[in-house]
Design brief:
By secondary structure, the protein is α/β, with parallel strands linked by helices. The protein has three domains: 81 residues, Winged helix-like DNA-binding domain superfamily/Winged helix DNA-binding domain (Arc Repressor Mutant, subunit A); 114 residues, 3-Layer(aba) Sandwich (D-Maltodextrin-Binding Protein, domain 2); 98 residues, D-Maltodextrin-Binding Protein, domain 2 (3-Layer(aba) Sandwich). Helix content is 39%, strand content 22%. Strands 4-3-5-14-6 form a five-stranded mixed beta sheet. It has a three-stranded antiparallel beta sheet with strand order 12-7-13. The protein is elongated, with a radius of gyration of 24 Å.
Length: 314
């Protein structure tokens, strides 16, 4: 048993919290898993895991060793990727992360197509609305919807992301006019929870920037929840076009105050600046760019009959 293989077993068990689950992912029998862990602990002269019949947990030494083991495995994988890049054949384990609302709609539906194109690439996606540290978490590529300020990351713009203020047609029929940002005080607002940066709505009024801080009688902590409330006549909200674009195109939502809005926080793919861009990462990055196109299918002006749009609508 080589050291790297033993480390991989240990890291997988620590991540899964279960010998059986880790064994299934690694396609190893329980006895082989146990032998690898025992051999690693014997080599180190320390117990890394506390094992019971139902679960495993890290010891204090195990916690300290886990971070180092991750980095070592990452370095080995990167070295192998650098060598494999000579053949330019995407292969290996691709670890990505993306925010929930975007990943559900515009990444997950396309992963089967990517896997069909690159059958030697194994994809792991961590769905998180937190900006995970890519190096510490051994992540190859992250999707970020934010202004890029971290100089340690290389970014590639995937698409523009103008936000839209919308309401349902039935809501607008029964409410007073809404033709100027000042009219918002007379309307029901659906906002994110207090303190969310998404509650800052940016307008340009008389050539001067103005920020309206949305505070609704409905305060929800997820864009999909806000969308459903808005479609069902709950009031006025602001959401990204990748969420509301097809609803605008279908007429179930109506865009409002478009001439005043100053909202565009692009969608980026980012990766560590010191990390070799392996064929698997480059292939996935190019795949996303080709899938989204210059005018993304989710925009109300995009191609809603494209294969990508149809996949995303299912």
């Amino acid at each position: 048993m080589d050291l790297i293989s033993m480390m991989r077993v240990f890291v997988m068990v620590a991540d899964k919290g279960s010998m059986a689950s880790a064994g299934r992912d690694l396609n190893l029998s329980p006895s082989v898993m146990s032998k690898n862990l025992s051999a690693l602990e014997d080599r180190l002269g320390a117990r890394l895991l506390t094992r019971t019949t139902r679960s495993v947990s890290l010891t204090e030494v195990g916690h300290a060793y886990l971070d180092r083991a991750r980095r070592i495995i990452g370095d080995v994988d990167e070295a192998e990727a650098a060598v494999s890049s000579v053949t330019n054949a995407p292969r290996g384990h691709l670890r990505i992360t993306a925010p929930s609302t975007f990943s559900y709609r515009h990444i997950s539906p396309h992963l089967p197509v990517f896997r069909e194109m690159y059958p030697d690439v194994e994809v792991e996606m961590i769905i998180s609305d937190n900006e995970l540290n890519l190096v510490e978490n051994n992540i190859d590529l992250a999707i970020r919807i934010a202004l890029m300020r971290d100089s340690s990351l290389i970014s590639r713009k995937l698409a523009s992301n103008p936000r839209a203020i919308v309401a349902s047609p039935d809501y607008l029929k029964k409410k007073s006019k809404l033709i100027h940002p000042d009219d918002l005080v007379n309307h029901d607002i659906i906002s994110f929870q207090l303190g969310s940066p998404y509650n800052e709505w940016h307008f340009l009024i008389d050539n001067k920037p103005k920020v309206y801080t949305a505070k609704g009688m409905l305060q929800l902590n997820h864009g999909d929840a806000i969308l459903r409330a808005c479609i069902n006549n709950g009031g006025v909200c602001m959401l990204s076009r990748f969420v509301v674009g097809r609803h605008i195109a279908a007429g179930t939502l109506v865009p409002i105050l478009e001439n005043f809005l100053q909202e565009d926080i692009p969608i980026y793919a980012v990766y560590p600046s010191g990390k070799h861009l392996s064929p698997k990462v480059r292939a996935f990055l190019d795949f996303l760019i080709d899938t989204y196109g210059s005018v993304p299918y989710w925009d109300e002006h995009g191609d809603h009959n494209s294969d990508a749009a149809i996949r995303a609508s299912k």
